[in-house]
Amino acid sequence: MNFPYGIPMTFASLGLIEPLLRALEALGYQTPTPVQTQAIPPVLAGRDLM
């Protein structure tokens, strides 16, 4: 996967709560997809997403 500026985004840096971070880790997910990195912040801010 190509990351902007060569630095991978993490789920923690997206502001997810600890229970979700633990669940993602338990399922083996390490980094969010490009779509997730763009979609999660607006959703957490309470904005609509289409």
Automatic annotation (TrEMBL):
Keyword line: ATP-binding, Helicase, Hydrolase, Nucleotide-binding
GO MF annotation list: ATP binding; hydrolase activity; RNA helicase activity
InterPro entries: P-loop_NTPase (IPR027417), RNA_helicase_DEAD_Q_motif (IPR014014)
Segments forming domain DEAD-box RNA helicase Q: 9-37
SUPFAM superfamilies: P-loop containing nucleoside triphosphate hydrolases
Motif (Q motif): 9-37
Alphabetical list of Gene3D superfamilies matching this protein: P-loop containing nucleotide triphosphate hydrolases
Keyword tRNA-binding (UniProt): no
Identification of the protein by name: ATP-dependent RNA helicase rhlE
